[in-house]
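Following up on my earlier thread - several people asked me to post the actual chain instead of describing it. Fair enough. Here it is, all 173 residues.
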Amino acid sequence: MATLSLPELFARLGSPQRIRRIASYDLFDPGLRPLLDAIAARNAERLHAPVSMVSVILDSSQFILGSHGVTGWVAEAQGTPAEWSLCTHTVLGGRPYCVSDNTQDPLHADNPLLAMSGLRSYAGVPLRDDSGQSLGSLCVVDVVPRDFTDEDLEFLQQGADDVMRVLADHRTG
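Reply from S.P.:
Thanks for posting it. Predicted structure:
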């Protein structure tokens, strides 16, 4: 997103079709979070990562729907600004996105969230609904540099498919 200004970023994320699709889910159903927390925990355990998140990316923010290992102000706020979220890259790219070591990656080296948290590596896959819209991401994040394998991404994709099945049960429109 280094090539996108904030207004351009927010405009792309805020496409009316995408936002309408996100709004068609009951994201505040009290039964939803435990289901998504369980998927995040399973991904963190299987991929030996301290943090895993299920999130949707709104026009200017990341909203965490389910998580494992998320602490501090991010847990309290249940999200971050979209421009700080690596999941934004996953959503905008519409495909898996990985960063082996953000301190060595010019696109992410100055990211305030990563600097504050000490998180170093990221792997995420898009959450696509039946219309093809990329609504958010299922990701794992680690405190050490690491390369994610095709097998890791395949497991994350299976988790993303599980997330979308759960979300389908929470569709309101």
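Strands lie at 51-57, 61-68, 79-81, 97-99, 121-128, 134-142. That should answer part of your original question.
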